[in-house]
Amino acid sequence: ILGGTRGVAMTLARVDFAASTLTWTGVGNVAANLVAKDVTGTHIRATARLTAGIVGYRIPEIRPAQVVSIRAGDLLVITSDGISEDHLEHIDFAASASVIAEETVSKHAKETDDAMVLTARHRGTST
């Protein structure tokens, strides 16, 4: 389906709620961060290690997927390079994931590039 295109940057993430883990990998310039808030403030708990390149005509050798622990309250933030790099410094962590995504696009999208933001918060598991 990507034949005849320049290809895409891609980050894949999978949450295993039973194991409390996040598994992720990616190719290109789509950043993925796991953000948390504690008594010291908001901070990045983990960042996906991405492989340079694009998915398309030739797929580069992809690094093995990382597995990191995920806790209730953690926020997954995936952004394209059309979002300014300092966007995580301005997150209102108390807002819902959808509001964070909307505000990130409206306040941090570059005028010269396409912009994508995906956010998801781990709400914990119900018993």
3D architecture notes:
The chain is mostly beta strands. The protein is 9% helix and 35% strand. It is built from 1 helix and 7 strands; from the N terminus they run E-E-E-E-E-E-H-E. The chain has one helix spanning 97-108, and strands at residues 10-16, 21-27, 30-38, 41-47, 66-69, 75-80, 117-121. The strands form 2 sheets. A 4-stranded antiparallel beta sheet has the order 4-3-6-7, covered by helices on one side. Strand 3 (30-38) and strand 4 form a beta hairpin. The longest helix has 12 residues, at 97-108. The radius of gyration is 15 Å and the shape is globular. The mean pLDDT is 89.
Secondary-structure element string:
EEEEEEHE
Radius of gyration: 15 Å
Strand-pairing-aware structural class: mainly beta
Major β-sheet profile: 4 strands, antiparallel
Beta-strand content bin:
35-45%
- Determine the mean pLDDT: 89
Through-space gap between termini: 42 Å
Our count of helices gives 1
Which percent bin holds the helix content? under 10%
Number of strands: 7
Largest sheet: spatial strand order: 4-3-6-7
Large-scale geometry: globular
**Which residues form runs of ≥5 with pLDDT under 50?**
none
